[in-house]
Specification:
alpha+beta; Serine Threonine Protein Phosphatase 5, Tetratricopeptide repeat; Nonspecific Lipid-transfer Protein, Chain A; 2 domains; 5 strands; 16% strand; elongated
Length: 209
C-alpha cells in the first residue's frame, strides 16, 4: 500500500468515515510490522474503543476494550503464576494433562527440535492409556491409542509422576530415579522435552506481537 505513512493516511480517512472494522484490519498488520509505531498503535486503540462501545455482545466488547488498553499501556508483567492445584490436576483427564503440558511448552526454544515418543500412562487406579507424543515445529502434539513405529523411546509413566513434574514439585531426574517413570530407548528426548516446559505468564499480548 506504499508504506506505513500511506497505510496511516488511508486508515485515518476510513476512521473518519466510520469504517472501523476495515481500519482495524489495516492497522493490525501495521502494528505487527512496526510494533513501535506509536501513531498506528494509538489509532488502532481508538478504533478498538469505537468497536467496543458500539458492540452489544459483552464478550466482544471486553476484547476490544482490553485490546485498546494493551495498545496504550502495554501488558502488565506479573511474572509466572501457577493457578492449578494438585486437586485440580487430579481431576483432569490424561488428555487434559497433555494439553496442559502443551500450553506450557516454550515454543520458540522448542522450534528446532523434533521428538517422537510413545507414552504409556498408568492411572491411579491401575488402567493404562497409550499416547503417541510428538514435538514438532514448536508444538506438542499427542494422539491417544496410537504408537509410533519410529519412536525414539517408549516411556512408561505413573500419572502421579507426570502431575508432580507439571506442577513443579518434582523433576524428571527424581522420577526416573524413583522408577515412577521408565524409558525403553534413549531417555534424552524425554528429559529435553520436560526441560522445555515453563510456567506461563499470567498476562499475555492479545493484539500486539
Amino acid at each position: 500500500m506504499g508504506g506505513a505513512e500511506a497505510v496511516l493516511t488511508q486508515a485515518r480517512k476510513d476512521f473518519d468515515a466510520g469504517e472501523y472494522r476495515w481500519v482495524a484490519e489495516l492497522l493490525d498488520r501495521l502494528v505487527f510490522a512496526e510494533p513501535d509505531n506509536d501513531a498506528a498503535r494509538e489509532l488502532l486503540a481508538d478504533t478498538f474503543e469505537q468497536l467496543g462501545h458500539q458492540c452489544e455482545n459483552g464478550t466482544w466488547r471486553n476484547e476490544y476494550l482490553t485490546g485498546a488498553m494493551e495498545l496504550r499501556n502495554g501488558v502488565r508483567d506479573l511474572g509466572a503464576v501457577v493457578l492449578a492445584t494438585p486437586d485440580v490436576m487430579a481431576a483432569m483427564t490424561l488428555d487434559m494433562l497433555l494439553d496442559y503440558a502443551g500450553i506450557h511448552l516454550d515454543g520458540p526454544r522448542a522450534w528446532a527440535r523434533n521428538i517422537r515418543m510413545n507414552w504409556t500412562i498408568r492411572e491411579f487406579d491401575g488402567p493404562e492409556r497409550d499416547f503417541a507424543v510428538q514435538l514438532s515445529n514448536g508444538a506438542l502434539i499427542y494422539t491417544a491409542n496410537k504408537s509410533l513405529p519410529d519412536a525414539a523411546a517408549n516411556v512408561h509413566l505413573d500419572r502421579g509422576a507426570l502431575q508432580r513434574i507439571l506442577f513443579g514439585t518434582s523433576d524428571i531426574d527424581t522420577e526416573l530415579r524413583a522408577a515412577t517413570i521408565t524409558v525403553e530407548g534413549d531417555p534424552e528426548p524425554l528429559t529435553h522435552l520436560f526441560a522445555l516446559l515453563r510456567p506461563s505468564a499470567f498476562w499475555f499480548p492479545i493484539v500486539t506481537p
